[in-house]
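Case study 2.
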Amino acid sequence: MNAALLAAIAFVAFALGYRFYARFLGRVIFKLSADEPVPARELEDGVDFVPTPKHVLWGHHFTSIAGAAPIVGPSIAVIWGWLPALIWVVVGTIFMGAVHDFSALVISLRHRGSSMGQIAGLVVSPRARTAFLVIISILIWVVLAVFAFIIGTLFVSNPGAIFPINVQIVVAIALGWLVRRRGIPILWPSLVGYALLIAAILYGNRFAAAFPAIGEVSVIAWVWILLLYSLVASVLPVWLLLQPRDYLNSHQLITGLGLLTLGLVVLHPTIQAPVVNAAPTGAPPMLPFSVHHDRVWGDLRIPRPGVVGHHFETGQLHDRRPGDRLRGDARRGRARTPRGARGDRRLCVGRRMVEPLRELG
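Prediction:
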C-alpha cells in the first residue's frame, strides 16, 4: 500500500472532521460564543491566568498534546497491522481524542479554569473529587517518569540532542520576556528564535564532541535533572517559559510534519507492515480485555450474564434461566419471596451464588 495515499486519506478525514464535526460540537453541543467570559480575563494574575494571542495559545496546546501517545502510539499499534493503526489514529482522533480534549477545555473554561478533579467534586461529590485528584496525580507521576526516562535515554544515546534542547529553554525565556515585558511584536523575535533553534540542532553534535563529559551522565541522573526542571517550569509564570517554549516547539513540529509529508509525496514509499496482524507473537490482544468470554467470568468468580448459577468451587456454569426456576416453584406450590424483601439483589444458596436477574427473564 502506498503510504502517500494513506496520508492523503488521513488529511482529508481530519479536514472534514475539523470543518463539520468540530463546528457541530462548538455550535450545537457547547454553544460557544465570541463574547463568552474566560478565566484568563476574569482571574488575570500575570502568573497562571494570562490573556494570550490565539496563535500563541494554539502553539501551546498543539505542542502539549504532541507527546508519547500520538508519536509512540502509532509506532506500537502498527504491530497489529497498518489498517487497525490507521483507523485508531484517524477515527480515534476525530471522535474520541480531539473531542475529549476539546470538551475538557470548554468545561474547564466555564468553571473558572478548574481542573477535572475539582469539577468532579462540584458535579458528583467531594469524595469523587478526592478520588479523581488522586487518580490524576498518579497518572501525572507516571507520565513524568516515562517522559523523563525517555528523554534521559535519548540524551545518553544521542548527546547531540542536549545542546539544542537547552538552547530552546534560553530562547523561550528571552522571547517571553521581550513580548510580555518589553511589548515587542512577536513576529521578529519568533523568526530569530526559530533560526537559533535550527542552528542549535545543526551544532548539537559538535557541542557534544567538544564537551564529552555530558555524554557520561547516566540516565538516572538525567531523570532527576529533568524532574527538577519540571518543578521549576511549573511554578514560573506561564508566559515566561511554558507558552513561548511550546510556541517555538510548534514551529519545529510543523516543519517536521511538512518535511515528512514532502518525503511521502516525492518518494511514495510502500508500507511494509501487513494490513492486519490479528495475533502478533508476544503481543496482547488487539482489543483490550478481549479474552475468552467464559474465562473472564470464571476467573473473576462473577455470574455470567444470562446464567442463574455459577459454582465457585468447580467453576461450572449452570445454564438455568430465572423463569425455569420460577415455573418449578409454581409447580411445587412454593411461594417466592419478592426481590427486594431480602435486602439484596443477589441470593446466596449454599456454595452457589444466584442472582434473580428478572430483567433478563
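Residues 3-267 form one domain.
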